[in-house]
Amino acid sequence: MSALPLSGIKILDLTRVLAGPLSAQMLADLGAEVIKIERPGGGDDARAFGPPYLKDPEGKNNNNNSFYLCANRNKKSVTVNIATAEGQDIVRELAKSCDVMMENYKVGDLKRYRLDYESIKAINPGIIYCSVTGFGQTGPYAPRAGYDAILQAMGGLMSVTGHIDGEPGAGPMKVGPSIVDYMTGMNSSIGILAALYHRKANGGEGQHVDVCLFDTVIAALSHYAQIFLVNGQTPPRRGTWGNGGMPAGVFRCTDGELMLVVGNDGQFQRTCAVLGAPELATDPRFVKNNDRVVHGKEIMAIFAGLFLKKPVAYWLEELEKAGVPSGPINDFSQVFSDPHVRSRGMQVKVNHPFEPDLSLIRNAITFCGTPVKEYRAPPLLGADTKDVLATIGYDEAKVEALKQQKIV
């Protein structure tokens, strides 16, 4: 088996909370050595975003919660107080031998510590320096802090998410998980990988990669935003209705709900047959998808009445036979017990000091030649400080002295 794709790449990770750490984790999964810099005592802000926390074997309070665990596997944790001169020296010394440095501080914050791009570039001209922020390195909002929910609102995502206008509970709605953070993490990884390739292909030139949540959420709105750019109109909130094929949405059955997406006219004809109403396929209001979009409320109401006649399992089986895309509305218990999810190995086990059989979610990328086979648990705070600092000449006595001064 070949080495992992990013074996030999070394990353200094000064990011905290979610978007940046997720990006660094993706790269660590693929073989990069990621050195995570955390504050002595408190660590990454995400360590306080609990409960739930893992149970300490001795019953003590700890900082290993689900929020931190989801974004920090396969890394080394080194505690450094970058507000001190000695701490800044440590980070700069580590940066000299790194391919990538990542940070998500407010714009300009690291310049006062001489840990900004220009300062690091001066000691390592080939460095790929990735800054992850709410609003980017330029523009009137650049100094602002940014959190996922704020960017969902400002970027337009909430304006097109939620119940259909006129229905109970209508109005802008946030997507459940921190989806903008996750997408920003992916964009950061893409930017870093592209810059690494550019450096290799162009003789060692590094660069500053600027990724932000605001740009990311706007770009991710994709065809929704393009509708506005074409006709000047913001698409309406559609609830669970689909975004192309019609009918598409959640339908209630006798014992639960299912999600249906009728993607083309052939699928519509087959769905009508499954529902016992083949005549709908020749109804002038519904023959073509564009017709069904115009008469969306009518066809959705008719389908709603038909689906109420039988249970979910019956409809899913019949729709599967007919080649019509549909699926159950799963909770997480059902997701992780699903035979397909299990066969794909989406739940992986790691040996954590507090829980020897800790479950995590695997990296979503698979390779035939360089598969990610093993995962290391997210590190305890400062677990690798001594070993990593030894690589830049700090012996145990020096590290212990720095600990006493709360520098590491």
UniProtKB/TrEMBL annotation:
Signal peptide: none annotated. SUPFAM superfamilies: CoA-transferase family III (CaiB/BaiF) (SSF89796). It comes from the Bacteria. Keywords: Transferase. GO terms for molecular function: CoA-transferase activity. The keyword Transferase applies. PANTHER family: SUCCINATE--HYDROXYMETHYLGLUTARATE COA-TRANSFERASE (PTHR48207:SF3). This is CoA-transferase.
